[in-house]
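Troubleshooting entry. Yesterday's outputs looked truncated, so today I'm pasting the complete records for two proteins to confirm everything comes through intact. If either block looks cut off, that's the bug. Protein one:
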Amino acid sequence: MIPIRRLIASVATAILLTASMIGTARADDIPAPATIGTEQYLGGSFTMDRHLDGFEKPLTSNGDFVLSPARGLVWRTLQPFPGTTILDDHGITRIDDQGNRDELARGDQFRQFVELISAVLAGNWQPLEQRFDITRDTTEQGAWQVILTPKDGSTIQNQISKITATGTDFVENVRLEKPTGDHDAITLSDQALQSLPLPPEFAALLTGTGQ
């Protein structure tokens, strides 16, 4: 089973990466992902392949997610082990398949972290430039590509050595490379922007009444 805290760290980092990619949209000649308005949310599906040293095949998980700059992020794993991770103004919470809540992070530090993620995904990517060196390019297929490298002295260097993200209208692929040589490959699909309110099952999770 994939360690939950490592999984959450990858999810959070992926989002930051995604944000970073968005943040790199300085040049008008390179396309950038769509901005999520404060009255909108982004929903979609994900597949995560975790490649670990010593394992011949990746550990694969999949599920769906909802991101609202105004409300937070719900990352719901459906296979192989059901569970939900919530990032909101209060911090990071994990809900297992029995409905048990585990508050993994609380306090101002993590609140700022979640606010940073939301800001980036909303198109306000400037804060990421303080943590990453960002380079942008386009692929042969016309998609944008963003590479994020932690700045020297950044604490995130202990967890991530490089992040590569590609996409068109939205972030579609994220590769997280780690100092250990392990890497995660995350594919986001079936994404669509919708107007609030959130679907009831996701809204209930963010308010703490869904379990």
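Protein two, checking that the full record survives here as well:
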Amino acid sequence: MHNEKETEQKKDDTNRIIWSHEAEVGPIFVVFAGVHGNETAGINACKQIANALESMKGDMQGSVYMISGNKTAIEEGVRYIDFDLNRIWNELDSGSDELRESAEWKEALEIREIIKGLIGRYSDDMKEIYFIDLHTTSAKSCAFIPFNDTLENRRIALRFPVPQILGIEESIHGTLLSYINDLGYPAIGFEAGSHTDPLSIERTEAFLWIYLDYVNIVNLGIKELRQLEEKLRPESDIPIKYYEIDHHYMVEDPLTFRMKKGYVNFDSIRKGDFLAYDDHQRINAPVSGFIFMPLYQKKGNDGFFILKGRSPFWLEISSIFRDSFLNNYLHYLPGVEEFQPGAYSVNLTIARFFVKEIFHLLGYRVIRKDENRLICYKRI
């Protein structure tokens, strides 16, 4: 009986549209849950919020769409079947034959059609469209928000009392968030905690309610908002501030990677600390900082990240310079070549100092092409 109930539950989880409501007025709120099939806290939170919203439809000032991610992987209870659905969005027009034959290829095309359909339907009316991608982690964690560092994403993320991870697209490529940002729409992630922590569902619900209030689709009272904010705040003394990725350890074969037990997100580490074994080799921290998303599962190639803090003052300065005249003179810098409008190649054997900092200051996404070259794209 228990197995039958579980089977029915999984089938219910794999409906592409979890819940939707269409209104004549207001913004469009689009939520993705279960892009990784073993991260079901977002799906459960969406269902619970949908039950509450069902009785509030007459008062809602906007449209809401809650969408399942990797349906096949959700049904199997695994992160993905053939390819990570949250790493292939930059290959949808040029994917390999192997990718095109994968389970995730079909999932991505179906989701892309929904995204394009919503944008096509609502963009002519000049309605604001907000996208959210819900996740959890394999390690114990407080809630946090990862986002591509656009000014609009920053403005939205600032509403939530959780640590905020800037520019994650520079290390993790092909994400759904990057695909949507590149279409010109705000999109932020929400990581609620560990996969199995019941608090992950509660935090996701709190996050979605606060966001719905922020975009005026529902109106909550001050007291209720404060209670929801308290559910999001880290229980420990993790500072609520901006962070950016300082080091990314990639894993070639996750089956041979073994993270040292006990690390949780935002644990402080020092250069030289022992972190993991990879193919029987000891992996120590190359820099000091905060451990982030240590891999405690046997699927995925992101072994761990190391974060460093980023001051609000720097962000304020960068928001001022993003569209300044200085952008017109970047190609005069030594080792810098513009290869298309808004995109530069940087030779690091010539341009050696503060390259990443300068391009970040002016609002560019910086990706390392190889040991001696960076590619910098202007963020939309």
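Both blocks look complete. Sanity check on protein two: The CA atoms of residues 79 and 184 lie 28 Å apart.
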